[in-house]
Amino acid sequence: MDNLEQDHTSYSDARLGLLLSQMDTDLRKQVAYAAETTRPSYTPSDNGNSIMDQNIDNILSTRETTHGSYVEQSTTSQTLKRLCEQARNWDQMPCYMRESIHLIQQKIARIICGDPFERDHWVDIMGYAALVLRELDRLQQEGRNDGSA
Q1: Residue 37, SS3?
Q2: Nearest CA-CA partner of 96 in 65, 139, 53
Q3: Fewer Cβ atoms within 10 A, N terminus or C terminus of the chain?
Q4: Cβ contacts of residue 127 below 8 Å, gap of 6+?
């Protein structure tokens, strides 16, 4: 490793450390805020949609047990995504790879904030990785290895 590369690595490591520190502070603030606020009571509307409103509330309640608190999960997900976007190869990766990484990070956030034993989270991660592998296999069969789609 030459001096220029070593300096770049040191700079990147320092920048990453600062970014992680800031994200950690932001995440703690968001989680603390979410914990302090109470979930508002939900009253179905009187406009004829009360059954739909109740169904939506039931779905959201179920999702909260599998996905975790929406504020905590979404903050964690965005933090993980921003972290990935700071990596050296992010801008060189094609959209389908970046999208799969974003979706995998969202599933990881749901695992660590919600129910880690929810099988669907793990299956979805495999599925997003499999989509990238299919595209790589297709490109290889075409004799292309440039990552373009």
Answers
A1: coil
A2: 139
A3: N
A4: none
Residues 6+ positions from 93 with CB-CB distance below 8 Å: 101, 147
Q: Which amino acid is at 45?
A: S
Select from 104, 102, 31, 99 the least CA-distant residue to 70.
31
Residue 68: helix, strand or coil by DSSP? coil
Distance of alpha carbon 31 from alpha carbon 113, whole angstroms: 11
What residue spans define the domains of the chain?
A: 3-37+54-141
- Picking from 41, 57, 39, the residue whose alpha carbon sits closest to that of residue 49 is 57
| The one-letter amino acid at 46 | D
pLDDT at res. 116: 97
Q: How does pLDDT run across 3-22, given as a tens digit for each residue?
A: 444 544 455 556 556 656 66
